[in-house]
Design a protein that fits this description.
This protein has 453 residues and is α+β, with helices and mostly antiparallel strands. It has ten helices and 13 strands. Helix 1 runs antiparallel to helix 4, helix 8 crosses helix 9 and helix 9 runs antiparallel to helix 10.
Length: 453
Amino acid sequence: MTLRTRLAIFVAVAVAIAIAGASYLSYTVARTQVRGEVDDALRDRGITLGPISDIQGRYGRGAGQGAAADPDDDFIRDDAIVQFLTPEGIIQLGRAAVVLPVADQDVAVLSGTTTSVLRDITVDDIHYRMLTRAVAPGIALQVARDLSEADAVLAGMRLRLLLFGGFGVALAAAAGWWVARRSMRPVAALTLAAEHVAETHELDAAIPVDRTDEIGRLATAFNDMLGALEEARASQRRLVADASHELRTPLTSLRTNVELLTRKGGVPVEERPALLADVSTELNELTHIVEELVDLSTLGREQEAPVSMDLADVVDRVVARSGRRGDVSIVADVEPTPLEGPPTAIARAVSNLVDNAVKWGAGGGTIEVTLQDRTLTVRDHGPGIDPDDIPHVFERFYRSPRARSMPGSGLGLSIVAAIVADLGGSVFAGAADGGGAAVGFTLPPQGTRAELS
């Protein structure tokens, strides 16, 4: 069953319940009102029948079962049946062809136990409403009125309520189906687009958005998802293409050296150590590139839980470790910087910045690391960054002309940029005052964004 059909059925059922409730209430009120008018008429008729002494004088007591009054008496009217109950029997007025039944409730009125009773009776398949009330000690009055006309009115009302109610439910179902069809049209388009993407793997199935309600937001989110998927696919393709290009050079060099080592006649003994050193260097370079490719491809999908930390402690540990590895002096000036995020990724970002500065600042003075106002800056005193290279330093595999003769994969700063972006921050790079380069990142204020998970 489709969603639009379920919505139409839901609307129809809701309207049916509302109509049924309203119809029941209307019918109950009308029935109560009609019955109330009949009951009031019976009470009024019982009161206007005159003093009981007139009845006793005219008809006497103990006239016997079924005794009738004079046909021309003023008591006789066509709108009701009137009779009196006495211990001796029933006194009927006029040409009454109907003898009203006497039940225990009526006997209770005659005996004085109850003053009056109203009840429905059926005589010769005709529905009556009957009042029995005491009019004097040992005498009770019974007045009955035919309810055939009132029952016919109420039956007609029931039929009309049923017909109009059924028509209203059918109309509501049709309107609900039509509204659901129009409302679900963007969802149908969304479904077709999703099926198209699943079948063809093409991500150019964006749907037009011309509304701002929940359906419009869903369509916008779907288009954004397609855009993100397309960007991820393009990024993956660029990564594969760049990796293939970067791996080709060391692989070619490695293959050449291996072929030299294994060619017939061998390699002169004095050249072998140099070739083996080249092979080792190329293997290390390949290993480094592969490791950074793995880090870059899995970044953001690792399951490392975020923890609360102080970025200053991370910087101090990285600076101490880097200082022990090389002959470059590294000084740090940091302030407490609370942060929540994956500790390994954050340490990797800081380490890559410091390693980049060590590579370019070797032999050129002290590396300065500062952490102020949630901004980490790593400065070296090397040759600096060419202005033309600044827009590209955080791109994957980008290496400036001066860097192509130096070790490295061109992925270190791109990994920094990816980690900082996941934390909601931004990276920067530029020439430092007095020479060298300043590279770093700025984190957003604490608590303004959920950190990388």
